[in-house]
Amino acid sequence: MDNATIERIIDNHQCEASSLIQILLDIQNELHWLPTEALEMVSEKLRVPMSRIQHTATFYKAFSLVPKGRHEINVCMGTACHVRGAPRVLDVVQNITGIRPGETDPEMKFSLDTVNCLGCCALGPVMEIDEQHLGKLVPDMAADLLKNYD
Amino acid sequence: MINSPAELEQLRQDILSKRDPGKSRISVCAGAGCLATGASKVISAFDAEIEKQGLKGEVSTKGTGCPGFCERGPVVVIDPEETCYLQVTPKDVPEIVSRTIKERKVIERLLYVDPATNEKAVRESDIPFYRNQERNIIGNNSKIDPKCIDDYLALGGYSALAKVLFRMTSEQVVEEVRKSGLRGRGGGGFPTGIKWDAARNAPAEAKYVIVNADEGDPGAFMDRAVLEGNPHSILEGLIIGAYAIGSHEGYVYVRQEYPLALENVGIAIRQAEEYGFLGRNILGSGFDFNVKVHRGAGAFVCGEETALLLSLEGRPGEPRSRPPYPATRGLWGKPTNINNVETWANVPLIINRGADWFNRFGTEKSKGTKIFSLVGKIKNTGLVEVPMGVTLRDIIYKIGDGIPGGKKFKAVQTGGPAGGCIPEQHLDIAVDFDELVKAGAIMGSGGMIVMDEDTCMVDVARYFLNFLTQESCGKCSPCREGVKQMHRILTNITEGRGKEGDIELLEELAMSTGSASLCALGRSAPNPVLSTIRYFRHEYEAHIREKRCPSYCCKELVSYYIDPEKCQACLVCMRKCTSEAIAGAKHRIHVIDQAKCNKCGTCFEVCPARFGAVIRLTGEAEPVPGAIPDELRIVVRKKEAKKEARKEAEQEAEKEAR
């Protein structure tokens, strides 16, 4: 972990405790997770107790306290995708990756998550792999798509 | 920096005079939906092609906000003719430039074809999807490059702000908004004028105004479309509200899941500051106002205003009880007014055109238009803006063009996780705040999810309760425990463990959760359960009594089976099976290993219709037949021959047995 990066992020927000969430979001964007050392630095600099940082970091879904895999899969579980068969797509993705939402496989290849709506309902069921939208999915197509990643 | 309304008008005239209305303008939707289908490649293809064909400077290209017709994206509109091309790909671009731009001819194959009449629609406004709407707010999206403030000014932008600052008192502004009958678009439906009045009258030095852009309802994306497509309209509304209330500091609370919205709002704020619509002494009026953007970090409950306020302060968003309302005790304990994106976007229109104009749209108690996101099992997925009071049937059939695949409509779910499901027999109710509540649903933020015969209503209730279980902040026990227990019972029912009395227990839990919870999340959590029980009790009963899912949706209650009489051993299902559960070979009847099957339904979908060999079974009355003996798994093409062969094999087997 790069201490200077964390310091720069904290300084961008003028070390204000009210910017805690914004700071954590920036760290999450930069590192794709929140390492304990980073949180300790934030705690020290903002003079916010670790307990409150833990509370915040576990309350909001954008934050991850474990590292992410090389490819981040977000399967949309919005209502429109749900009625168009998203649960079946998710089942297949889980079967193939061997992980459940919120987990990363031991080889650090995939991290799997569900999201509540990506807002491209016309493409549903849709999933996002490394920020690329893959739409109009059916289970066997999702299975094929996952083979393209290593 | 603009220092007076006269300078603003002068600037507007300058912008307009530089624009030749006869010149071709290409607008490509660059909203999140179209970007996902490749809009950015289309835009760069246009730029390259225009240069290649030597038209640089004569034709302008811009990425605009979402016009709403997501189903047929990327959407391209070519002005001044208003020619509308749908599902445009980069390889269509050279032809569009050479034929439509240079020769002013229409390319037939890219036009919308009305499936009912087979007639082609050239202009955007001829397409039934648009024709049946009233696009007061979203209509401007396709005319504006959201990253360019001049586009907004060209359409009369910030004239309402100038009018308010120089020709109206704050009382008059509040009164105009009150008279318009505008009600909150975020879900509550509280009269905006009354809310503003309360914040205006609250005695305090510092007050805050906030845009609630934490759009969290799954299946609702109208706020995102306005944020991405016309951010200045929201800012203008916010500054007007700040003036009316007496606030000098505001926030736009945008969920971080909307990166493009965050980007465009950020750009809009910077431009508004440069032009003098934000900051000190706005337009020389002496009024000061600043805005900051705050990113939400992924918590549905933060759409609730007291939770949103805590989140703005950098804390976990756990709602508190009201009163005191934010109008008296809000951000940092100061009077605060929070309105939804669409509510703010209505404000400049009301100021410019007057409360009486706004009043003309809508029903007695619900005025104006409302944007709905029409999604799910519907032919025309997209954003639709209609006057309050149109019927659900008109929205679903006239604008949405009905259900795809010849399926039967079952219900429409409105209002997100706090809403309810409305069945066929109520499709003729007028859509407004009060009528939807009477039907057991709510307007909510405007999500409208259409469901067909394949959607199981018990599963839908379970889906929403699962969502709410995850999103409940856990502060008050009626919500934390009540929602969890309802979810548990619903899961039991959908997985075949339902028992008599479950429906009544759900109703009882719904009652107590609904009346005892702290915030709207828990108080409205029972709606998906109660509305589905009210209209689809028979589906609950089928699950509980017969372990049957009438929609073949709940996978624990459904099995897939290959009819040996019909299987032609074509290998398709076997190859496509996602769990390697199908055994078969050429001339060997395929068999599903029920233990391995993950019920994904792929075999059912891919089995050629002329065979129809894969069948779905559900309920205790339809057990899966035992696998046929191995020696009988030969496929003989002619049906009769197959039966004979089987008879022979059976006789032989009998002989052997003897």
First CA to last CA of chain B: what distance? 104 Å
- Shape of chain B, please? globular
What is the CATH class of the largest domain in chain B?
Alpha Beta
List unreliable stretches of 5+ residues of chain A. none
| CATH homologous superfamily (4th level) name of the largest domain in chain A | Glutaredoxin
The main β sheet of chain A shows up as: 4 strands, mixed
**Low-confidence parts of chain B, pLDDT < 50 over ≥5 residues?**
none
- Residue fraction in strands of chain B: 5-15%
Main-sheet strand order of chain B equals 12-11-15-13-14
CATH T-level topology of the largest domain in chain A: Glutaredoxin
Please characterize this protein's 3D structure:
The complex is a heterodimer of chains A (150) and B (658). By secondary structure, chain A is an alpha+beta fold. Chain A has 2 domains: 57 residues, no CATH class; 76 residues, Glutaredoxin. Chain A is 45% helix and 12% strand. Chain A has a 4-stranded mixed β-sheet, covered by helices on one side. Chain B is of the alpha/beta class and 658 residues long. In chain B, a hairpin with a 3-residue loop joins strand 3 and strand 4. At the A-B interface, helix 2, helix 4, helix 5, helix 6 and helix 7 of A face helix 2, strand 11, strand 15, helix 18 and helix 24 of B.
Summarize the structure.
Chain A is of the alpha+beta class and 150 residues long. Chain A is 45% helix and 12% strand. A four-stranded mixed β-sheet of chain A has the order 2-1-3-4, covered by helices on one side.
